[in-house]
Amino acid sequence: MENAVTHKELLTALEWYVDQGVCDVVLDEVVDRTVMLDLPPMRVMPATSVAPSSTPVSAVQAAARGMDVAPAFLGASDAYEEAVKCAKGATTLEELHKAIADFDGIAIKKTATNMVFADGNPKASIMLIGEAPGADEDRLGKPFAGLSGQLLNKIVGCIGLSREAEDPKNAVYLSNVLNWRPPGNRTPSPAEIEVSLPFIERHIQLVQPKIVVLWGGVAAKALLGRTEGMSRLRKSWHDYSPQTDGVGDLSISTLATYHPSYLLKTPQQKKAVWADMLMLQEKLKTL
Length: 287
Ligand code: URA
Fold this sequence. Notes:
This protein is α/β, with parallel strands linked by helices. It contains 13 helices and 6 strands. The chain has 2 domains: 7-64, no CATH class; 76-284, Uracil-DNA glycosylase-like domain (Uracil-DNA Glycosylase, subunit E), CATH 3.40.470. It is globular, with a radius of gyration of 22 Å. The site of uracil has 12 residues, from helix 8.
């Protein structure tokens, strides 16, 4: 048969689905979305208005029966308000870790294996912030634990910085805008960034670094509240102050540069990052 799919092609397709996160469990039950096409639009009520029921039903079953349903995860604005409240309430890194772990306003928490909070020395003068955990970070529960992390270690190592250093002057502390891996390593959605921002901003306030370095466009745009690309944002110092009301009022010298995973694909930009690291080294001498 001419059009028969080969075993190898099927395996390749399967691997692609797995890589995209199609294997990740999002709900407790399998959903036949073709049935949903005939349902009236779902009316979502606040969680408190759902009548108690002796037999638990899923959101999909409830919608199919025409019942008002509480969302498994909070609606966008509720989630943001809840994130701000939880972030503000955390007064130590331990409390912030718990607040993020307990926060249910971000659906990718369900598909991730581990929460990724931070690594390195929390007393470090420099805080490095990336975009979101990838597959290795998700598996190990640590930021920048894979190939791009190895390159990051080498880059900062060239100017005498390390996540293992005890002396705060030579130490770095690392985190990400998102604490959970987006399935298939996709770019975080604007809604995911919005609900994660209060937490990373509180994280910065609790660590109180003297300098922040933002790796990649997602981190730079989110934390600097800017829309320009990296070629415009790098090469100058920015004054970072939190955008989230009530999480703190620090103003911190901040540098943005290309993400190490971009450098792995585009090594010709390594010299640009090297120039940024020299700027960082000069700044460190003034501390
Ligand atoms: N990319 C990031 O932005 N952060 C990580 O922790 C790993 C890869």
